Automatic annotation (TrEMBL):
CDD domains: ABC_Mj1267_LivG_branched. It comes from Ramlibacter aquaticus. Keywords: ATP-binding, Cell membrane, Membrane, Nucleotide-binding, Transport. GO terms for molecular function: ATP binding. Residues 8-249 form the ABC transporter domain. This is ABC transporter ATP-binding protein. InterPro entries: AAA+_ATPase, ABC_AA/LPS_Transport, ABC_transporter-like_ATP-bd, P-loop_NTPase.
């Protein structure tokens, strides 16, 4: 591992489903601490790329390095242990459990305690304290004892981000963190994202261009699974191909 290695380096990454090539020799580097935005029209292959990075899908060809380490063949939980986190698909998880309980589970995700007896789980004061701190950090402290299913959509999105952050990631993958939120909720989540320290590198898919561009240092445009262009926010926004492909005019 080298100190100068990018947080994430993707080289020649391809994925084929049956006859359909969804990821086409993607090259992408995300520097340590960078906020990198991934854009592209529907079906461009953005989510597939996230699934490949997280290890939920195996590439047909190419490689993925995390902080200089080749993780291409590693299982998702091993990538998580190396500091890769993505937001949980919370809608499918533990709806009847409290917010506090859900965060405790996320905290245990990377802890050796996970493999201990369950007996001490609810009684562990240190774990509860850390979980409460996580909830406070996203403004949900007062709702700690509320069942997840009784929270608003915006609160769930904040909790998703909190649970990913609870794992102390080095690289965070955010899949449309602002999707489906009201203007006020978008503002709250944007503030939350802005507050994340530069010790965490962020790769984000987002369709809300205004909010996403305000946040991003660099941008990569995907189209039909291929990187069309990548560069600083200014470079990508002023490139006519962005308007043509992404904005459709
Ligand atoms: N498991 C799969 N089997 C077959 N085809 C798939 C599979 N997963 C994705 N695809 C196809 O790959 C293409 C890219 O899908 P993907 O969801 O990655 O795009 P996207 O850029 O995230 O789109 P969106 O913005 O709509 O979320 C689509 O044509 C999709 O139908």
């Amino acid at each position: 591992m080298s100190a100068t290695a990018p947080a994430l380096r993707i080289a020649g990454l391809s994925k084929t489903f049956g006859g359909l090539q969804v990821t086409r020799s993607v090259q992408l580097e995300v520097a340590e601490g960078e906020r990198h935005l991934l854009i592209g029209p529907n079906g461009a292959g953005k989510t597939t790329l996230f699934n490949l990075i997280a290890g939920d899908l195996r590439p047909t060809a190419g490689s993925i390095h995390l902080q200089g380490r080749d993780v291409t063949a590693l299982a998702p939980h091993l990538r998580a242990q190396l500091g890769l986190a993505r937001t949980y698909q919370i809608v499918t998880l533990f709806g009847r459990d409290t917010l506090l309980h859900n965060v405790k589970l996320a905290l245990l995700g990377r802890s050796p305690q996970r493999w201990r007896q369950w007996g001490s789980f609810d009684a562990d004061p240190a774990l509860s304290e850390r979980a409460r701190a996580v909830l406070d950090s996203v403004g949900l402290g007062a709702k700690a004892q509320l069942p997840l299913e009784q929270t608003s959509y915006g609160e769930k999105r904040r909790l998703e981000i909190a649970m990913a952050l609870a794992q102390s990631p080095r690289v965070l993958l955010l899949d449309e963190p602002l999707a489906g939120l009201s203007a006020q909720e978008r503002e709250t989540v944007t503030e939350l994202l802005r507050g994340i320290g530069r010790d965490i590198t962020i790769l984000m898919i987002e369709h809300d261009m205004e909010a996403a561009l305000a946040f991003a240092d660099r941008v990569t445009l995907l189209h039909y699974g291929e990187v069309i262009l990548g560069g600083t926010r200014q470079e990508v926004v002023s490139d006519p191909r962005t308007r043509e492909i992404y904005l459709g005019h």
